Amino acid sequence: AVGGVAVGLVHGLVFRRYVGFALVGAAAYVGLYFLVTTTITKIRAELGPPVHDLHFGGPDRMLLTWLGVESMAPGDRMGMTLFFGFNRAYRGVPQPMMLEAMKAAELERGSQRRVAWAMLLAGPVAAFGSCWAMLHWAYVDGMQFARESYRIGGQAWTRLDSWFSLPWPGGAAATGAMAVGAGICLLLMALRLQFVAFPFHPIGYAISANWAMNCVWTPILIGWAAKTLTLKYSGAKGYRAGLPVAIGLILGEFVIGSLWSLFGVIAHVPVYQFWMFD
Q1: For residue 210, how far is the Cα from the chain centroid?
Q2: CA pair distance 68, 168, nearest whole angstrom
Q3: Does residue 42 contact residue 100 with C-beta atoms inside 8 Å?
Q4: Paired strand residues for 199
Q5: What is the dihedral of CA 197, 183, 185, 61, to 10 degrees?
Q6: 29 - beta bridge partners?
Q7: What is the pLDDT of residues 11-34, one digit of tens each?
Q8: Residues 186-237: pLDDT tens digits?
Q9: Of 59, 80, 95, 253, whose Cβ has the fewest other Cβ atoms within 10 Å?
Q10: How remote is the C-alpha of 250 from its chain's centroid?
């Protein structure tokens, strides 16, 4: 694992240097990206939130907030734009899913080594398959299919244009706001450690501003209320008895929603969207 991390960091540094990053900028970018993705993976492992977008909260936004566009070389700006695809948001970051797969193999007494190899082999296949599928459906359905990809893809180059036409210096106010947010998270963490019944979680503060949270806060609230009432009136025994019901509801929704979306794709008919981007 340590060797894999080292290889990944070196590869990321060399590749970013190749596309135009300055050495210092590449090192800062790779280091911050590693910290962000590791933090998100830890969030999923500890709390398990269904969404963790952290829109525009990656290393590019951090560096520009601290240093300003004026201090970034043109190669650094171009490099950040090329990596916009996996730094715009982090709801699809692969590390949490990989960790959950390894944990599932451990719980089922399976081979974690085989799971790791399967994920390594699935990566290139998925990358090729997704690119092929996007080109295929864009050719079949035209701009009607590609409008969302065009909108999001265009954001990177519009942003790059603004960096060159209207570069701005680093902002002390924005940097201070980031420090205040970090301080609030540390305070909430300290209160959680000090008081067992403290209701506010630092992770909740960090992810509550996510765009996708506006789509799922109601079911999260219902689940929290059901869990709280069950523990209060039925105790741990009632909670354990209700776990199969909760898991069944989750699996049922995902299975039916996925099959219904596949039916719409195969039959070429509009269906109820299980998730807005299905």
Answers
A1: 10
A2: 6
A3: no
A4: none
A5: 170
A6: none
A7: 878 887 887 788 888 888 888 888
A8: 999 899 888 877 888 888 888 887 788 888 888 888 888 988 899 888 888 8
A9: 253
A10: 20
